[in-house]
Design brief:
mainly alpha; two-stranded antiparallel ribbon; 8 strands; about 55% helix
């Protein structure tokens, strides 16, 4: 089960895969070859079938609720199913799993790795009333997020039926409006309707989550979350990776700010943080919607295929299905699995008109080996065209590891699951591939058009990096108590300034909870996986491109940014080796076996954007604009609580 971006459903009680056992007093543990054989018999012939059945019930119930969030029966059934699963996990642990001394078992045994994960029971450790309250808090937060709406800017006291949902209306306004006041209004309105309303609930959630983490032998929920990376230095490693790409981000930030001054001269100032509302995205996590404002060479090709997509596909179920078919064919061309079932009759690939749904794009594994579905309110545009490939990447992963034991049916680490679809998208997004599909004219790329293309990619990939890091860096501090409940807003604004160089467009107070306006926060979904995936996807892409003969380091005629692995069986074979392993081995071992490296590296992403980096430095020298921002300015946007 994967929770998603991008990263999948409520994940209410998940926490099954742990790397540390619950601290429970034991008298005698079953050890030795006889016990290992006994444990294998139990896992293969009892636990596997029973667990698959219980997870299937939960996913079915969660699907019904996520696709009809105002249906009280569906909501109640989802809560009941999650509680039943928690009770099942606890019972299996108490009656069977905890008796085995798994650490004494053979290192080569899959039994040892399964029991390593199953010796933790996640939020199933919460008993009775606590578990029920925890599930209620999560359900309430998700309902608030899913049903949040805002009145139009020109009708701010509108009737309920005129209020606008996030997808597609509010996101479209943030992406396209040139009216600073409207952007500010929509930015603030979304946070009033979502984050602000979940603030008190979130504090309850933190208390229950930390309580569950302690019961599992972890000091707090943050440490519980990063268990699956199986590394004692994970947080330090991630910090080093961020510092390795920080210079590239700051160059992009400075250039974008310089270009936006012309659009918003009264609001964007050189040397200052950028207002979060003007970057074309509700959370300023991706800036590709402002590409027309910052395009380096307006007269050169810009590679936006949205107009071509709109000519080819209509905004109907049939038209959207055709987009999924195009994406599916890319995977099949590599010798991978056909995923047509995932966007078939049981899926939700377009927003229904007769009910409220949680639109956040996600891929679902129903734990029965044949039912896999996409849930997405798809629109016909380039962004969603790429997202479709991302979501099908999750489905492809599900299909490839479906024959592994249930405890190993996960990505090698959570970042792998997010990276897989994006590895494909790096090929799909190339002008070379879009020409093959007939969405672009087949003109040879010039230096100017290449810089345009890399700028468009950077507005997505590089702009995202600090956001991908700070969401969990912020929550880790909440979970360990570094950020108290009385400073949720202050620290959020400060960290957004420190890492992203942005500030809110209006003053915020401790009545607000802007972090809660991002799906993954009320949705109980760890986010560092996306930062990891943005690093990993370029590493894997580089390895597959080498295998395909589409890239050669130092060869200007075979640069990494032009690689397209479409229809390449050799690349597909290497890709499949990554997918089939699931979580059956450590991610470091898998990475070494498949691409020859044990650690994550920022070198491939930096190489991919090297031409753009040179261009950005040249522009800064030429135009004499500043690098960096006033790190104290965020204080002007924070209203401290009054003291009596």
């Amino acid at each position: 089960m994967t929770c998603q971006l991008t990263p999948i459903y409520l994940c209410i009680i998940i926490g099954l895969v742990l790397v540390k056992a619950i601290t429970i007093q034991q008298t005698t543990l079953c050890t030795g070859p006889h016990c290992e054989a006994q444990a294998k018999e139990y896992l293969d012939h009892t636990y596997e079938a029973a667990a698959s059945q219980e997870y299937n019930k939960v996913v079915l119930a969660d699907w019904d609720y996520n696709t009809d969030v105002l249906n009280k029966t569906a909501e109640d059934n989802s809560k009941k199913a999650n509680i039943a699963l928690a009770e099942f996990i606890l019972k299996e642990y108490e009656d069977n799993i905890k008796q085995y001394d798994w650490e004494s078992f053979s290192d080569s045994s899959s039994v040892k790795r399964q029991l390593k994960f199953l010796n933790g029971i996640g939020t199933a450790a919460l008993k009775g009333e606590d578990l029920e309250k925890y599930n209620n808090v999560l359900a309430d937060m998700n309902k608030i997020y899913a049903t949040a709406t805002v009145c139009p800017f020109d009708d701010q006291t509108c009737e309920d039926e005129k209020r606008l949902p996030l997808e597609p209306d509010l996101e479209h306004i943030i992406a396209t409006s040139t009216n600073y006041d409207e952007l500010t209004y929509i930015w603030k309105g979304w946070r009033e309707s979502s984050g602000k309303k979940v603030r008190e609930l979130y504090s309850e959630y933190v208390n229950y989550g930390n309580k569950a983490a302690l019961a599992n032998g972890y000091p707090n929920l943050g440490q519980f979350w990063i268990r699956t990376y199986e590394s004692k230095t994970f947080q330090d490693d991630i910090e080093k990776l961020w510092l390795d790409v920080k210079d590239l981000y700051e160059e992009l930030h400075a250039y974008v700010r310089f270009r936006l001054i012309a659009k918003f001269p009264a609001n964007v100032v050189d040397g200052e943080p950028i207002p979060a509302s003007v970057l074309g995205n509700m959370w300023a996590q991706s800036w590709d919607n402002i590409f027309p404002d910052v395009v380096p060479f307006p007269d050169a090709p810009i590679f936006d295929v949205t107009p071509a997509l709109k000519k080819r596909f209509n905004q109907t179920h049939e038209g959207i299905s055709q987009i999924f078919e195009v994406a599916n064919e890319f995977f099949v061309s590599l010798g991978l699995e056909d995923m047509a079932m995932s966007y078939g009759p049981k899926a939700m690939i377009i927003r229904p008109e007769d009910k409220e749904v949680l639109c956040h794009a996600s891929a679902w594994d129903f734990y029965n080996g044949y039912d896999y579905r996409i849930k997405m309110c798809t629109s016909v545009n380039m962004e969603d065209f790429i997202t479709v490939h991302h979501e099908l990447g999750h489905i492809q992963y599900f299909l490839n590891y479906r024959n592994l034991p249930i405890a190993c049916r996960e990505g090698a680490n959570p970042g792998f699951h997010e990276a897989i679809g994006d590895v494909v998208a790096l090929s799909v997004a190339t002008p070379k591939h879009m020409i093959k599909l007939g969405y672009l004219e087949g003109t040879p790329p010039s230096k100017e058009s290449t810089i345009n293309y890399l700028m468009k990619m950077a507005l997505d990939k590089i702009a995202f990096l600090p956001f991908g890091y700070l969401i969990d860096a912020y929550r880790w501090k909440i979970f360990d108590g570094t950020i108290p409940t009385t400073q949720y807003t202050y620290d959020w604004i400060k960290m957004r300034s420190d890492y992203q160089g942005i500030v809110p467009p209006v003053i915020r107070s401790e009545d607000d909870f802007d972090a809660g306006a991002k799906f993954h926060v009320p949705g109980n979904t760890p986010y560092i996986r996306y930062f990891v995936s943005f690093i990993l996807q370029f590493q894997i892409h580089q390895a597959l491109c080498l295998e395909a003969g589409q890239y050669e380091k130092g060869n200007a005629s075979l640069p990494l940014h032009e690689c397209d692995i479409y229809q390449n069986a050799a690349a597909g074979k290497k890709f499949k080796a990554i997918l089939q392993s699931g979580m059956s081995k450590t991610w470091e071992d898998l990475l070494f076996e498949t691409i020859g490296e044990r650690k994550m590296s920022a070198e491939p992403i930096k190489e991919y954007f090297s031409l753009l980096t040179d261009y950005l430095k040249e522009q800064r020298a030429k135009e004499n604009y500043m690098l960096g921002w006033n790190v104290e300015r965020y204080k002007d946007y924070y209203q401290a609580p009054t003291t009596h």
